[in-house]
Structure formats: structure tokens, C-alpha cells
TrEMBL record, chains A, B:
Family: Belongs to the FAD-binding oxidoreductase/transferase type 4 family.
Keyword check for RNA-binding: no
Protein name listed in UniProt: Glycolate oxidase
FAD-binding PCMH-type domain span: 36-215
Originating species: Asanoa hainanensis
Record carries keyword Oxidoreductase: yes
GO MF, one example: oxidoreductase activity
Any Pfam family matching the protein: FAD-oxidase_C
Domain of life: Bacteria
Cofactor: FAD
Length: 464, 464
């Protein structure tokens, strides 16, 4: 190992090789709670593709695994370190190489922060839609590696839809270029999409060509409060089947409503069982579309509907949704006051028609396992995040949390759902991936992993 | 071989095994001209996944390759038979299994014709956008296997964007299910997209889950005629960078204009060097968007612009575009009157900003190789189809045609383009795929092919 550190120090610039124990600890894990992690032997922060190649070759020769990391905002443990591994952090590869406004693409290094790219392309009159919750800190490389989602997906899709091409350093140290910079192209196997979402197990992404869109029209926004989750689910189904194209269709359950009111009182009715937040960005049709969605919510039994009359009010309505995570963290801290509150953040997507049944099922599971479970999610996509609140210092509470997690997975898959809508597999969902795709699917995964990384150098133990 | 036919006859229903030499000849090739093909030993038309499994197992045991075929409307020879192979035609697998209007997906067998699916989902108030030129006869399985494009792509993308999941029979005879039926999902490697566009080289697609969209608004349409290709290219760049989202942005060059006027006089100005056809389907904004696009065309130097005032007139304008292929066939027949006229249909995509330079380059190549080359294409995507007209009975003419084809490929790749925008690799573009993606890209293709089809049973010699 000392040899490897010496070699890494020789091939990388000053300051790019970290061995300070405090810094190693910083790079142990992403934001997934209650998922195992190890301590790396060394953390490297290359700045160029050539430096990544040097790292991969050095690690391969030493037989030491590599764990690629972005901003470590992931929620499935995909970036969690392995004891003795090389953590390859891409955060110093943070250059926006090119923005082409006519051909509508940008070329970026993987360490560019999502919000930085969004701002840079907005300055060119364009838009990079993907907006994971972590967008102000997460990197494009991490977004691509996990195929990150966000609130925009109901209309604009997940990260994969915006990745036109990649540069990837393979386990062999060779540099692969995939995809294209043209608007259209179908040459050969879609290697680009194979690497998107592969969580660093097939190669290290060193450059990304992302497709851009015209700037969106201003959004009009409403919130609707429902007396039952069934009524909220019915409203989502009616909006989806009504031919509307909401740019946002989010759900908060009663646990979240109460937690948000406790964190920052906004006057939300906490007797409501669910809140829907909807937005449209359909230009001159937006006012009409919003009025129709309002009518759909009322017809589905909404207790109250508030439509924002201007952008300031719309931002107010969005604030409740944005407070979901800090509110649940405060709720966890209040529930287990010794600082031992932990949240298992789950992520499941079900057919939209199964939304209400899924919400009811989660409520029953919370009662059965005697744990608070708050649900927030991208209702328009059928993508829910049940947040299971446990006492991390109480093994029984943690065991019940894991039991509830498994029960939620089982319920969702039984409804024709998938074990991850946007957070990815990492370590958290490995068993459930196998449940979902079965032995043939797993065998194909292993065959591809074996073909591209025969010595299992790259992020071993994740996904497959 | 007799043994294999006996076994296939035993495992398939009556009429599903064809050995009549006339029928074998019918199944020799797709619509790619001047691309090699062989004669299969037997053609099978299974109706179920279980029957496909039986065919794959029987062929594997006999060591005989399988060539999957849809409606044979492909333009790259990907479905061309190999001497002595089993042709596995999916045309009898033509059931629409399910249409779910709320969750917005349909489940279909691969032999369902694109137009049949489009009609069925339209009856449910929804839309399946992909519209390859062959949509009235080509099958969804073939569309998926080649990742087919069409005129809608400038706004709605290629087939891949609509494939949520697949059922695939692997070379081992195992049945793989990929993807999902939910709106969103990122579980594991994106095997779905790996099979899309793999042209039958990795597995036989036996079921497809396609995502659906709300019905589109009525389109408004215009045509604009330009004195130079540079002016037309400038208009395309201005429309693309202006934030418009045309639902169609097509180009016809002067050769096509003249050919169309010769086939069916429509009063088009044949002194124009290029025609652009644009449409918008932006609802209540459409009229304003169309007027702005008209102004952009005029500012770019259009000789004339005609906007359709109603749907009948819009259909008239579309007719010129739809006549492109038959008009060029008549042109080829008129040019080489002994029935020996052949067309090498090319397919290249370049950055939109390179459109005008590409058109000029093709004109120079036509002069250099002394052959007529008509260009039609999806200008909004930078995707052009140069149609090289040769005398197929004159080896020198065919050789010049191939020379012009290679020259066009070289020019396009040099501009940052891709060797195929939507027709695929098949046999026609194999050498150019290698030029485009290089040795590392090819090695990764071969590694994946080897991992999934180690005995090279499935469509050997195509793509890789």
C-alpha cells in the first residue's frame, strides 16, 4: 500500500493525494444512513483524464480496488468506501469545457456541480433540466453515475435522457468515448446509457456531453390538500390521464405536513392526509391548464386548493416541498432526543394507479412496525420516498426499520413497481435488485461486469 | 440441416416453418440496396415467446446462426439473411397485449406494425410518437432493434426514448425481462437501452413495453424555399437557437424538388436550392410560433414562404416530403432507363451548425464522382439522407457510388457527426462504425457481444 501511495504521489500533482486520517474519514460514505462503509487507504483528486488513467493503472497493478466518488450526496451507499481502497474523487475535475447554444449541448468534467452547470447554460438562454434534491451540491458525474432524478422528471425525465456521450476510463486504463454531440445518432450499442446509472462499477466517467433544452416558460403553481391519500391518488391519476403535462407533481403526506409546520409554521392544514404540489410551464396555456388541474383536485375531493397568483407566491408554495428533508431531520431529532434519530430514506416507484394503495400500505407498515414513516415523493411519476425514522442506538428500532423497509419493497414490487425510482442500487438495494430482475437479469449484469471489469477493480460489491 | 428443420417443425405449429425456395428468397434481405445477403435454410414464424425459445435452443444445438427479421424495411442490411441460417421472423407475433392509458404504456409483441399501435393508442386518447418513414409497414420489434427515427424526432426523439422494458430471448434460450412499467426507474444497468438498436445481435426481442404520451395538439405547417443551401442551413440554426420547438423540421434539396415536380407537379419553384418544411404543435401558441419561424426563414433569405391556413393545406405541404422516396425512385429509373437505376440510401447526422457545409460538401462530391445525389433529411436534427443514384448494372457506376458514400461519411465524421442518425449499422456501416468509435469502442462492443452471445449464434457479422 505504501508503494501505491508513493506511485500515486509521483503521478499526480501536489495536493491530489490525501492520506490524512481525518480526510480519509470524510470520504468514507455518502448520505445513505445505516448502510455499511469502510475506510479508504488513500483518496486521490485528479484534475484530468490522463491523471485518472494513471490512478486506474496504478491501482490495477497493485490489485487495490477503486471507489469513484462525486459530492457524496448519494442515498444508496454507491459511493461508500471499502477498507483499504483508493477513493477516486472527481470533485477537482470541475471545468465546464464547452457550451454550444445552437447545437444545444455542453461538455463538462464530472466534478461540475449541477447548479453551476444549470446557471452557466441559463446564461446562454438554455436549460439543463435534471434537478435532483442535491442539485446545489451534487456533481454531474455523480448524477450520471446514479442516473439521478428530481422534481422535473414528471415532464422532463431523469438524467439519462440528457446524456449524449461520455468519456470513460475503463478498468484496463483505456479511454473509451461513447455517444455523440449531434442531436441524433444510433451508431452501435448504446454504451452511453450502459454507463449511466452503473454507479462506478464499469468505468470512471471523466467527461460528459449533456443535451440542453430551450429555457422553460415561467411556471404557475398550486397546492391542494386532501382528506385521504386515496383522494390525492385519484387526483394524480386524473391529472395523468387527463392529458396534462405538469412540470411538477409532488406529494407530501401528513407526517411531512406536521413536520414542516413544526419546523416553520406556514399555516398548512395538518388535518389533511396529503398535499399535492403541481406546476405547469405551458406558456400561454398555463393559466388554463392550472385552472383545469385545480378543478380536477376539487373533483377528487380536495379540502382546499391554493393557486399562486405570482412568482413570489409560487416560490412560497415550493418552500413547503423543499423543507421536507430538514423537517424530517428535525422530526427524527425530536422523536429520539439523544441525537440518535436516524432516517432510512427509501425510494420506490409504482404505477401511478397504485399510488393510493401504496400510501395506504405504507401507513399500515408504519403501524405494524411501530415506527414513524413519512412519505414524500414525485407523485406524477409514482415515485415515493418513504422516510423510516429509527433510533439508531436501539438495535431493535433499527431492526424494525429494516423490516419495514423490506416490507415496503415487497409491497411495491408486488404492485408492478421497481425497487428504485431514482436513488439507485448501491449497497442499500442490492438484494432487492435481485428480487426485482431475477436470476437471468442478474446473470446478464454479472456477464457485463465481467466483460468490462474482469478483475473487479471498480467499486466492487456495488450493484452486482 | 434436415434434422434442424425436422426439429423446428416438431416444436412449432403448422405453417410456422417455411422451406419453399420462393419464400426463402423473399426473406433474403431488407430494403438496403447494394448490400450483400444470403439465402436462409429455413424461415420460422413463431407466435409466442415459448416458440422463440424453442427455435433458439434448436438452432443453438445444431450450431446454425439465427437472423431475426421484422418487416424487412430496414435500410442498413441488418436483417439480411446469411446462407444456411435460420431466419426468425417476428411478423406473426402481432398482438397488442395491453394498453394502460393512466400509467401511459402499452405492451406489444414485436410483430405489431407501428401504424397499428399508433392507431390503437390514438383510440385510447394517447400517442406513440416514433414515426419512421416505413411506419405503415414496419414493426415495433424492428423499430426497437434498429432504434428507428422519423420526422417526429426533432421534438419527440427516437424509438429508444419510448422503450420502457423488453422481454428478450437470449442466445442461451433463457428469457430476460428488462426495465419496468413504471414512469420512472433506475434499477441496475440499463439493459433495455443496450438491446435497443443492437440489431438482433444480442437477443431476440419477444415483447416490448412502450411509453405513451398525451395526444399532440394539431400541427400548423409551413414550407420555405431558399436560393442557397447556406440560407436554408442558417434558417435551421436560427430556429434551433431561437428556443422554438418545431414538431417537424425537414429539408429537401434541389434534386428532390425537381424529382417531386417531375413525379407530380405541385408548383414548387425548382430554381430553389432547398426547401424547408416546418411544423409546430404548441397549442394556443402555435400560430405565434409559426409566424415567428416564418419571419426567421424570411430573414435568412427565403425566396418564398407558404404557411398552411388549415389542416387540408397542411397535409398538401406534407405531401411533397412524403413523395421524396418514390420521386427519387422514378428519378433513378429515368436516369438509367433499363431498370438498372439503384439508390444507395445514406444516413448521416452532423451538428446543426454544420448542415450547410455538409450540403455543400455533398454537392461537390456528386460532381466529383459524376453521380446524381439527392439529399432529404431531418434538418432540425442535422440528420441527412444523401441518396446516391447509380447504375447497378455498371460496375464503374456502383464503384463511384461506393466512393461517394465513403467520401460523405468521411466528411460528416470530420465535422463531428455520426455515421448513422437513425438507420443503424447493419452491414452497410460496419466499417464506418469502427472509424467513428475507434479500437477501444469496438473492443467494448466485442466484449459485450461475447458476454451475451459467446457462440455468435445471433445475427453474426452485423454491427460488430
Amino acid at each position: 500500500m505504501a508503494d501505491l501511495v508513493t506511485r500515486l504521489t509521483a503521478v499526480l500533482p501536489d495536493g491530489a493525494v490525501l492520506t490524512d486520517p481525518d480526510l480519509l474519514r470524510v470520504h468514507q460514505r455518502d448520505e445513505a444512513d445505516l448502510v455499511p462503509y469502510g475506510t479508504p487507504a488513500v483518496v486521490v483528486r485528479p484534475r484530468t483524464t490522463a491523471e485518472v488513467v494513471a490512478v486506474v493503472r496504478a491501482a490495477a497493478e497493485a490489485g487495490v480496488p477503486i471507489v469513484p466518488q462525486g459530492a457524496r450526496t448519494g442515498l444508496a451507499g454507491a459511493a461508500n468506501a471499502i477498507d483499504g481502497a483508493v477513493v477516486l474523487s472527481t470533485v477537482a475535475m470541475d471545468r465546464i469545457v464547452e457550451i454550444d447554444p445552437i447545437n444545444r449541448y455542453a461538455v463538462v468534467q464530472p466534478g461540475v456541480v449541477n447548479a453551476s452547470l444549470a446557471a452557466a447554460v441559463a446564461a446562454a438562454g438554455l436549460r439543463y433540466p435534471p434537478d435532483p434534491g442535491s442539485w446545489e451540491s451534487s456533481t454531474i458525474g455523480g448524477n450520471v453515475a446514479t442516473n439521478a432524478g428530481g422534481m422535473c422528471c414528471v415532464k422532463y425525465g431523469v438524467t439519462a435522457e440528457y446524456v449524449l456521450g461520455l468519456e470513460v476510463v475503463l478498468a484496463s486504463g483505456e479511454v473509451l468515448r461513447t455517444g455523440r454531440r449531434t442531436a441524433k445518432g444510433v451508431a452501435g450499442y448504446d454504451l452511453t446509457k450502459l454507463f449511466v446509472g452503473s454507479e462506478g462499477t464499469l468505468g470512471v466517467i471523466t467527461e460528459v456531453v449533456v443535451g440542453l433544452r430551450p429555457a422553460a416558460d415561467t411556471s404557475l403553481t398550486l397546492i391542494a390538500l386532501f382528506p385521504t391519500t386515496a383522494a390525492a391518488g385519484a387526483a394524480v391519476a386524473a391529472i395523468s390521464s387527463g392529458g396534462y403535462a405538469p412540470s411538477l407533481l409532488e406529494l407530501l403526506d401528513q407526517t411531512h405536513l406536521k413536520a414542516i409546520e413544526a419546523l416553520r409554521p406556514m399555516g398548512l392544514r395538518t388535518d389533511a392526509k396529503a398535499l399535492l404540489l403541481a406546476a405547469v410551464d405551458t406558456g400561454s396555456r398555463a393559466a388554463g391548464d392550472l385552472a383545469e388541474i385545480e378543478a380536477v383536485c376539487t373533483a377528487a375531493g380536495a379540502l382546499e386548493v391554493f393557486a399562486a397568483t405570482d412568482e413570489v407566491e409560487a416560490a412560497e408554495l415550493l418552500r413547503a416541498r423543499r423543507l421536507a428533508h430538514p423537517a424530517m431531520e428535525k422530526f427524527a431529532a425530536d422523536t429520539y432526543p439523544e441525537g440518535s434519530g436516524g432516517i432510512i430514506v427509501d425510494d420506490i416507484a409504482v404505477p401511478r394507479t397504485a399510488l393510493a394503495a401504496m400510501l395506504d400500505g405504507i401507513e399500515k407498515i408504519a403501524a405494524e412496525y411501530a415506527l414513524p414513516i413519512g412519505v414524500v415523493g414525485h407523485a406524477g411519476d409514482g415515485n415515493l420516498h418513504p422516510n423510516i425514522v429509527v433510533d439508531r442506538l436501539d438495535p431493535d428500532s433499527v431492526a424494525r426499520g429494516r423490516g419495514a423497509f423490506d416490507e415496503i419493497m415487497r409491497l411495491g414490487l408486488g404492485m408492478g413497481g421497481t425497487c428504485t425510482g431514482e436513488h439507485g442500487v448501491g449497497l442499500l438495494k442490492k438484494d432487492w435488485l435481485e428480487q426485482e430482475i431475477g436470476p437471468v437479469g442478474m446473470a446478464v449484469h454479472r456477464a457485463i461486469k465481467g466483460a468490462l471489469d474482469p478483475t473487479r477493480l471498480l467499486n466492487p460489491g456495488k450493484v452486482v
